[in-house]
Amino acid sequence: MFEAKLADGTVLKKIVEAIKELVTDVNLEVSSKGISLQAMDSSHVALVQLQLDVEGFEVYKTDKPMTLGISINNLSKVMKLVNNNDSITLRCDQKDEPTSISIICESKKLDRVTEFHLNLLSLDSESLGIPETSYASEISMQSAEFAKLCKELYALSETVTFEITPNQVKFVVDGEVGSGSIMIKTSEATEGAKNENEPTEMVCLSFALRYLNLFNKAYTLSNSVKI
Question: By residue range, what is the domain housing residue 66?
């Protein structure tokens, strides 16, 4: 038996919206510590890793670890039934291997209860070990600002180059339309960005803006993003 209740169901709704264009079918790993997810996109370019700790749930009960195969596309359709301020309860009552998961949405006034049973999938999965990595530079900035910046630059180029020094981070594009850059100073005093691990020399790396824009769909989950 498994039951997990989120007082603010929009959190799960935002998570599903953020990852649905990256991954299709995923395994939710349920344990006494919470719910985790690890999946790669079909091109094996991007890895999605999610951890929902047990402390974040209003109610959390499980009598054993279990793996729940979920279609993110189908889960997204169910999430459209969730209104603002609704709570969401995920529940599996089957004693053996579960074949479906119940998703219950309740309004705060309890004047509306929506219940849906989503069939589970049998998926092969392999947990990937992500090694600890020391980065030459770590930038923290407002997630909404970074999302806006990437979206605007994508209209000019398919790739963006990060040029990072101790005092600034520059986003450079060079496409068919033309070339240009956006420079943000990094310091404790500025709201634009903060360099938490200042590089001793310039860091220069290029990335596909398509993927950055897909990642940025999660910006509504947090006020800040770490790059």
Answer: 2-119
